[in-house]
Design a protein that fits this description.
The protein has an eight-stranded parallel barrel, surrounded by five helices. It is globular, with a radius of gyration of 22 Å. The chain is built from eleven helices and eight strands. The protein is 36% helix and 14% strand. Helix 6 links the parallel strand 4 and strand 5. The chain is α/β, with parallel strands linked by helices. The chain folds into two domains: 229 residues, Alpha-Beta Barrel (TIM Barrel); 38 residues, no CATH class. The structure holds 3-methyl-2-oxobutanoic acid. The site of 3-methyl-2-oxobutanoic acid has 11 residues, from loops. 3-methyl-2-oxobutanoic acid (KIV) binds next to loops.
């Protein structure tokens, strides 16, 4: 007899209901092993289009395709049991019309098994968000610094300072009114993040937007310190995996060159009775 073990995943309405409660925990993941690591600790796992920069070495997220998101979405799906999985809609896959957005979001959901999508834009995307949510596609919005608009902004700059705060406030209200179940706030001043978090009825998930938000998201590779040369102010490093990996690789190279690896314990003997397993001597 075998017991089936089934863990119920967090749903978009459950995330929405967490407004003002215990902060929501979200990290990105792009692969099965990382999804397995983050799943027990996160409410939400985002397959972000940051995958293009983080894993594929692209200079921005603009060249990320729907097929890339589907490939990484499928990989992440295999590693998740309980967190809500959200997949980013890449640049060019939703801006043209609500119909285009629906077609591509439906593909993302059907092929990856994600329960929601994320797309960038505020007021300008409200009609699209409304169209998707009315047709069974839960949407997480993304406002403030929207990296797909890097060329319009002229860089990855803080948004919503001074008079510009009204634009971001309008965006926040527009996506909430359109039916988004949560909204990512990227790189906005603390005062604005607090004001909008108090004003709108859906959870705000901050990245570079202070602890005033209803939750936080980081790119997992950033908080693990995978990149030795990338240290944005809004990232806290919880590990230095880049440095550790570099030291480990240097150690391996040294050992190979000095014939210290493989050592006796890594080598197979020639006893025909030895058990044919990974561990057999
Ligand atoms: O693509 C991404 O990883 C994101 C998060 C940083 C919010 O959009």
């Amino acid at each position: 007899m075998s017991a089936t073990h089934h863990v119920r995943a967090v749903t978009p309405p459950e995330v929405e209901a967490r407004k003002g409660g215990i902060p929501l925990v979200c990290l990105t993941a792009y692969t099965t092993p990382v999804a397995r690591l983050v799943d027990p600790h996160c409410d939400i796992v985002l397959v972000g289009d940051s995958v293009g920069m983080v894993l594929h070495g692209l200079p921005s997220t603009l060249a990320v395709t729907l097929d890339m998101m589907i490939l990484h979405g499928k990989a992440v799906r295999r590693g998740l049991e309980r967190a809500l999985m959200i997949v980013d809609m890449p640049f060019g896959s939703y801006e043209e019309s609500p119909q285009q957005a629906f077609r591509n979001a439906a593909r993302l959901m059907a092929e990856t098994g994600c329960a929601a999508v994320k797309l960038e834009g505020g007021e300008s995307m409200a009609a699209t968000i409304q169209f998707l949510t009315a047709r069974g596609i839960p949407v997480m919005a993304h406002i403030g610094l929207t990296p797909q608009a890097v060329n319009t902004f002229g860089g990855y700059k803080v948004q919503g300072r001074g008079d510009d705060s009204e634009r971001i406030a309008r965006d926040a209200n527009a996506v909430a009114d359109a039916g988004a179940f949560s909204v990512v706030f990227e790189k906005v001043p603390e005062q604005l993040a607090r004001r909008i978090t108090d004003d709108i009825a859906i959870p705000t998930i901050g990245i570079g937007a202070s602890a005033a938000c209803d939750g936080q998201v980081l790119v997992v590779d950033d908080m693990l310190g995978m990149f030795t040369d990338f240290r944005p102010k809004f990232v806290k490093r919880y590990a230095e995996l880049g440095q550790d990996a570099s030291a480990a690789i240097a150690g391996y190279a040294r050992d190979v060159r000095e014939r210290r690896f493989p050592a006796a314990e890594h080598v197979f003997g020639d006893n025909p009775k030895a058990v044919d397993s990974e561990d057999a001597a």
